[in-house]
Amino acid sequence: MGNELVQIGSAPSLGCVTPELLSAADFAPAPATAGEGRTFYVETFGCQMNVHDSEKVAGALMARGYRAVDTHQEADIILYNTCSIREKAAHKVYSRLGAFRKAGWSKNKIIGVLGCLAQQEGERFFERAPEVSLVCGSASYTQLPELLEQVESGKRRVTGLDLDTEDCFETELTRRDNRFRAYLTIIEGCDQRCAFCVVPMTRGPERSRAGAKIIEECRRLVDAGYTEIQILGQIVNAWRDPAAAGWSFAELLARAAEVAGVRRVRFTTSHPRYFTPDIVQAIDSHPALCDQIHLPVQAGSTPLLARMLRGYTREEYLEKIHYVRKARRPISLSTDIIAGFCGETEDDFEQTISLLKEVEYDQVFAFTFSPRPNTVALGYADTVAEEEKSRRLAFLQEVQRQIQLRRNQAQVGQTFEVLVEGYQPRLAQAVGRTTSNKVLNFAGELSDVGCYRRLRVISAGANSLVGERVDSKSQ
Ligand code: SAH
Ligand code: F3S
What is the reported pTM? Predict the structure, then answer.
């Protein structure tokens, strides 16, 4: 998109957004004084849950009087919210810290690492990156202001590494980046322990937030002007109401979609094992629930799925896809695939390709397998050579590109509503998303950002569509 894209959170003028909405865009109370005059900068790596965690961190610090700045140069405190899902993600953090050290920028600054890599490495981080004085995992963010105070009063190495806490559901102070779409975590951690994945170690055991609290927060968000709510969890559909009411996940979705004033509710990531027909029924009967499901399959071969410890066979997965395809509303499907997992044969890989052709996803996030610390797969032989992993990945991406191109071209002539998320002044082009999560570009204005627009699709590529306005008023 280029540097010029004006993202929702940073749009200087916000078009149809009311002043009430702007003043209510976060719930941070009046600043207290502990951090008065001190500045911080947070850089986020990784998934939406990390983006949302950074919003919580920013809110907690701002409530203490710290001020957010846009660059590390201006900041007294630099926080990296890290990801460790693949080696590359972890490497990025270390190289950022290395560049920082080399340039001598760390003098008189406090550097902290947060998130999954922080949790994974713990105290070892201090050895590898001596300029770091604070290491805090994702379940311990509410302690961050106190931990920072310890560093500010001269303590050199401070950690917050508790894993099994419910503090992560504290959203009172959250400072949301986006004024129209709000993230809302309903379940933390993961008990699944897929053979390749570090998440159970970095985010701890599964903890569900009470259903009534979630719905209460949905109401507060809508009252504050957010129109799209994105419900998050590592396995979002493993959510079970811990309260006596005992709602199922599908009931929770239905209740969220029934909150007066909400226009869109999305949820991610669903696990095939917990994917039940009532979720599809909820989408069918609630127009505010988005017609989009992200259902990671990882591989198309049953023996490989068993080695990955995914808990389903190819056939069981396809049965879930069958529910989705039988829905009254067309529902768009996306998935994650790992290419070149330990022991993946040509035949296993061909089965993944055949699954892609059978399901015809609207989007696929594919990665080569990356061995991770403390995972079951570390005990397997990593049999597929790196070049072969990359070859399989490239082949798979090309197959999927053609599927997407064909599916997107079939949308030409249809009309969709988009929530406009950004604007590129140089091209006078606005970009929005359909409920099915398709990206639509159109000739627009900055004032379109945050509004819902109706667009007719006039052309399509593999990754996005181009549309033209069929309405003239904001809705
Ligand atoms: N909770 C999600 C996945 C979270 S991790 C689920 O239920 O599947 C996001 C994606 O990263 C995974 O779906 C997987 O495709 C990929 N991934 C995880 N560990 C990986 C590894 N070691 N190497 C390559 N890709 C990995
Ligand atoms: Fe990872 Fe599997 Fe949980 S991919 S997040 S261990 S469902």
Answer: 0.91
